[in-house]
Amino acid sequence: MNTQTKTDVVALLSELVGIDTTNPGGDEKAGLAVLERMFTDRGIAVEIEEYRAGNFNLTATVSFGDGPTVMLNSHIDVVPAGEGWSQDPFTPTLQNGRVYGRGAADAKGSLAAMTTALLSLLDEADTLSGTVVFTAVGDEEVGSTGARALVTKVNPDACIVGEPTNIRLLSAHKGSIRPVIEVVGRAAHAATPQNGENAITGASELLRMLRGLSDDLAGRDHPLTGGPTLTPVLVSGGQAPNAVPEKCRITLDRRLVPGEENAGALAEVETILADFNTQHAPIHASIVECAPSTGGPSQTDSQHPFVQSCQEAMEDVGENPELAGLVVNCDMTTFRAAGIPTLILGPGTLEVMHAKDEYVEVDQLHRAENAYRAILRRLLVARR
Ligand SMILES: [Zn+2]
């Protein structure tokens, strides 16, 4: 086995952050090429597939002989940097024990720590049994198309998704659905509003009624993710400054918790709309479409042997083994839909995700690397 110098997780992360993989518009392939080099330098074959124009998935398979197949997964794309950074978001800065830059936490820190953890295990290959499939996918932040393309090609026994979890094991996450409501009234000259039916006034009343549903949801709880939520996120309406508006559109963001289905969540909104339509006829409100969202909620059974092995591994390295949940969505939903037991674990905190001056603590990078390594040691044992 090649015994070249151990790769430093901070150096690898810095190199990854230095490549702009903004989704949309960034260069996913250039980011993946950094990871490709890490593996090919150690004699491991890598496949980079352009699964659709401009989006790429990387797969590196490391075999330690017969045994289970474990997938390590995260995403190479990052959200747009936005304004107000203290330094260039694509020039990695090491300061105060932190690496700053877009994607440092979400999710290049996970990719770097997974890579260095896996490569370090090459030095103890004779004690391990099984296969690790390391995958870095494109387009997680917008459409999850990379993960969806990936599950048609791989079928691991279990998967760890790298996202910033503050080094906690997450076994559940929320999902979302975004109904778009159109409120339709009747146009008239603004000088004679009594001749029209004002759709914006109607929408404001409807929002008040929907607030009641939000309050009801706040009373429900889920032990890992917290309760479901409903909040208006977009409003548009009216056609001219001198006309009573005929139409107003409201987009709602409804977060679902494991166990909830889209149909049930939409039915609750429909009930409100029916009440509204009865009380405010001839103004009429209906759901006209659902705006794109990243998918439904999911959960992995806490009693699954894979979950318990991961919890034991966390104890091995002095980390918190308790399971928790994620309030946002990630590619776990795609892997769970494919029947793959999945947990989420990675360095960095939720607070810095998608924000300016995103960072990850160097200490967390090392802790994540240790945790991934401990998990693989626990999982890569011969089948009895
Ligand atoms: Zn992410």
Q: Record the strand order, biggest sheet.
A: 1-2-6-3-7-17
Described by its quaternary structure, the protein is single chain
Name every ligand kind in the structure.
zinc ion
Radius of gyration (CA) equals 24 Å
Defining traits:
384 residues; Aminopeptidase; binds zinc ion; Alpha-Beta Plaits; elongated; alpha+beta; single chain; 4-stranded antiparallel β-sheet
Task: Summarize the SSE layout with pairings.
Layout: H1 9-17, H2 28-40, E1 46-52, E2 55-63, E3 69-75, E4 93-95, E5 98-100, H3 108-120, E6 131-137, H4 145-150, E7 158-161, E8 169-173, E9 175-184, E10 188-189, H5 199-218, E11 229-237, E12 243-244, E13 247-256, H6 262-280, E14 284-291, E15 298-299, H7 305-316, E16 323-326, H8 332-337, E17 342-344, E18 359-361, H9 362-379
Parallel strand pairs: 3-6, 3-7, 7-17, 8-16
Antiparallel strand pairs: 1-2, 2-6, 4-5, 5-18, 8-15, 9-13, 9-14, 10-12, 11-13
Bound molecules: zinc ion.
Residues 75, 106-107, 140, 163, 330 line the site of zinc ion.
Describe the structure.
With 384 residues, the chain is an alpha+beta fold. It folds into 2 domains: 9-173 and 297-379, Aminopeptidase (3-Layer(aba) Sandwich), CATH 3.40.630.10; 175-291, Alpha-Beta Plaits, CATH 3.30.70. Mean pLDDT is 95; it is low at 1-5. Strand 4 (93-95) and strand 5 form a beta hairpin. Helix 3 (108-120) crosses helix 9 (362-379) and helix 7 crosses helix 9. The chain has helices at 9-17, 28-40, 108-120, 145-150, 199-218, 262-280, 305-316, 332-337, 362-379, and strands spanning 46-52, 55-63, 69-75, 93-95, 98-100, 131-137, 158-161, 169-173, 175-184, 188-189, 229-237, 243-244, 247-256, 284-291, 298-299, 323-326, 342-344, 359-361. It is built from 9 helices and 18 strands. A 6-stranded mixed β-sheet has the order 1-2-6-3-7-17. Strands 11-13-9-14 form a 4-stranded antiparallel β-sheet. The chain is elongated and about 85 Å long. Bound molecules: zinc ion (ZN). Residues 75, 106-107, 140, 163, 330 line the site of zinc ion.
